[in-house]
Amino acid sequence: MSQFRWPGGAGAVMPAAALGDLLALLWREGFQPVGPTVQDGYLGLDVLHTPADLPQGWTTEADAGWFRLQRSDRAAFFGFNLGQESWKKFLFPPRLPVVTAARQDGLISFAAPARPPTAYALIGVRACELAALAVLDRTLRQGAFRDPDYEARRQAALVVAVNCTESDAACFCASLGTGPAVRGGYDLALTELTGADGHFFLIQAGSAQGERLMAALPVQPVREEQWQQAQAGIAAAARRQTRSLATADLPGLLYERPEHPHWEEVAARCLSCGSCALVCPTCFCFCLEDETDLENKTATRWRLWDVCHNLDHSYIHGGWLRPSRKARYRQWLTHKLAAWLDQFGCLGCTGCGRCLVWCPVAIDLTAELPALRETAPKE
Amino acid sequence: MGKRLTLAVWKFASCDGCQLSLLDLEDHLLALAEKVEIAYFLEASSAVAPGPYDLSLVEGSITTPEDARRIKQVRRLSKKVVAIGACATAGGIQGLRNFADVTEYIPIVYAHPEYIKTLDQSTPIAQHIQVDMELPGCPINKYQLLEAMKALLQGRRPRPRAESVCTACKRLGHICVLVADGVPCLGPVTQTGCGALCPAYHRGCYGCFGPKEQPNTASLAAQFRRLGVAEADIVRLFRTFNAAAEAFRLESLAHEKND
């Protein structure tokens, strides 16, 4: 059999070593490949010069409030799930100058900072993260208020997705229908195959640019058993998921229960540290900060990641809209799982599980939402 | 050159580290000197200009009856008073005395206890006089100090933000040591300002900048216990440079009881 139809395009197979060819090709084309990498024993997202920068032979375990990066006996480049950092780091940077002002001869002039458009090639984007990019697109690119910086970065970016053949205990994309198989929104999609007959990537183009890149790679037709192995791996990843999120009764459920006693119970545990929102691939809140020089002649306005868990995030003239931890956690969850639907036509959650993994006290929305669903105990 | 802002730097019970942050602003000192006249700063110069002063930076906590009188004098001489560092804002490491009985240990420590005139508590400056601004930290962040002076010179609000250390870690891409290593870290209950220095080196936060707004120390301590941290170690975690800050003080007392 020569070629298989994958959902969305024709597939092929390339030897694992061709990953080096792909990265080299991307560099030559002017992209900066970025993706998962291990530095000082920690999994993060950073520049990838060669496949040696990828976490080959590493795996991860994750659960609520718990994450471990471990050595694995597999040769896989993508034999792990998600780390703390998401792609918003590159597309919606944590700290960005938005305007500068200069005072000269009694006049004040304003300028937008020069933005060298780094064309990132995002390597290893999982299905839940593709879904998260689609959510960010709706928020920052397709809504009433458009973010020109995000737009430029997103426009320039190339996406190399990876199908998940593993799930960890924090994953719940299957229940939201966002994964583990990628379904569009990529230029290239890879499925890694390791086994007795070698180490391969099934590769599939999802755009004209992807097709063009694929044509320059040493690809072969897919064999039946390779296709089967890939499908079986993705299906197993879905089956292994133990967490889930039922969403049929949203947004109503949360709108109807602002005073459910469970909010107090969560507030007793919540640290309002903001970690959940900061690691969330779709949370986009920011604050502005002005910096002046000592002469008061130049000023820069910075945009910083901010979170609704910060007291000051809701500060307006005269006070705080959400003065308690309870009000702030409620705001976060109600926005993610209810108001988001009204505001952007989709959930703010894609089932990546980062919020529950990186919560220092293991607050788990897949447990909190069912608890809120339970009727308040009668007095 | 217009009229310069006159600056005084005062020391109370402290290690001098915070006032040295001012001299550490090496790249900015010349520009700063054009705007600010250092009128009283014994750590830098024995030349002293008489008050009143536009701005007083106050380092250290109040631990003696004499200091309790002197700080009132500083207030009278100063248009603005900024308390700098964990000692001046929370009582400092010497706030450990607040958990003990001074009359008990003075005879053990000093050969002539009769010469020692000390208070039984180490208290922050704001407990004695009205303070216009507080910069936390052990030591303070010199850039926050510069920002405070710039804001005052330019007649605008300074911009230290009330945020957890977690916020700084996530913006900087530091992977969470609490979640990824199981290391007890005070970051989730600690005010940012240090730039997440310890987590950058894969160490848990020591809480140098003191409690953040509405810190949930009890929930974090419960997580430490689940990680296997002993009660006595939880007491020590909360009882360092900001031991006497209310949220940390209460949390350490709660675990001392359990120990």
* Residue-averaged pLDDT of chain A: 94
Helix content of chain A: 25-40%
Q: What's the alpha carbon Rg of chain B, rounded to whole Å?
A: 20 Å
Tell me the number of strands of chain A: 16
Q: What is the structural class of chain A?
A: alpha+beta
Largest sheet of chain B: 5 strands, parallel
State Rg of chain A. 22 Å
Domain count of chain B: 2
Helical stretch tally of chain A: 13
Q: Unreliable segments of chain B (pLDDT under 50, ≥5 consecutive)?
A: none
- What is the terminal separation of chain A in angstroms? 67 Å
The biggest sheet of chain A, with number of strands, parallel, antiparallel or mixed sense and barrel status, is: 8 strands, mixed
Which regions of chain A have little confidence, pLDDT < 50, spanning 5+ residues? 1-5
Describe the strand arrangement of the main beta sheet of chain A, using strand numbers: 1-2-12-11-10-9-3-4
Short characterization:
The complex is a heterodimer of chains A (379) and B (259). Chain A is of the alpha+beta class and 379 residues long.
List the helices and strands and how they pair.
The complex is a heterodimer of chains A (379) and B (259).
Chain A: E1 5-6, E2 9-15, H1 18-28, E3 32-39, E4 42-47, E5 58-63, E6 66-71, H2 88-91, E7 95-104, E8 107-111, E9 120-125, H3 127-140, H4 148-156, E10 158-162, H5 173-176, E11 188-195, E12 198-205, H6 208-215, H7 224-239, H8 252-256, H9 261-269, H10 275-279, E13 286-292, E14 298-305, E15 315-316, E16 319-320, H11 325-344, H12 354-357, H13 365-373
Chain B: E1 5-11, H1 17-23, H2 26-35, E2 36-40, E3 53-59, H3 65-77, E4 78-84, H4 85-90, H5 102-109, E5 133-135, H6 142-154, H7 165-172, H8 177-181, H9 197-200, H10 217-226, H11 231-238, H12 246-258
Parallel strand pairs in B: 1-2, 1-3, 3-4, 4-5
